[in-house]
Amino acid sequence: MKNLFRLSVGVLGFVSVAVQYWLVTHGEAGSLYPTSTVHFFSFFTILTNLLAAAAMLAPVLAPGSRLAEFLDRPPVRTAIVGYIVIVGTVYWALLSGIDKATGLHLYLEYVLHYIIPPLFVLDWLLFVPKGDLPLRLGIDSLAYPAAYLGWTLVHGYFAGWYPYPFIDVTKLGYPRMLLNSVGLVLAFLAIELLLVAIGRFLEPHQRHLAS
Asked: How far apart are CA 102 and CA 136, in angstroms?
């Protein structure tokens, strides 16, 4: 059951990103978004959904590989849960009202923001051991969003383009952008620490049910 679930969710994630890429670079959605491949893969949503899909597929398709073993580690999967939860939450709270996508492109937006995140959370709840999650996970998990922010600022400085309005330096200026970024970092930290607490609470009950 676990492998079938992960295979289905992983394929859904990869196919959704692939079709989204085709629409943006070749289809009607190209009029709404930059057509550059670099631009497309500069969206946190795209990168995180690819990461989540890889975490689903690697343990199934390449068990025993270094990648599969890394992505199957409970702290790593828990960190990815936090990232994908942010993807859905930020879209719902800040972006859905300004999203001009229609048709298939809008459907894929919903898949990447509203379907993949809860499915990945469900995988974490059902299949991931959570009792030994370290508190330092909150800090360790910030490496990925910090690297993303660094890339976004460097790329944005030279390209004059930013993937999200709340980090658009050209419109907000650096002080407001940095304030928004601090808010997002704190949100990441809070979610990861909450996941650690939930994991430690649920693990004894899961062991009891399994025994």
From this structure: 41
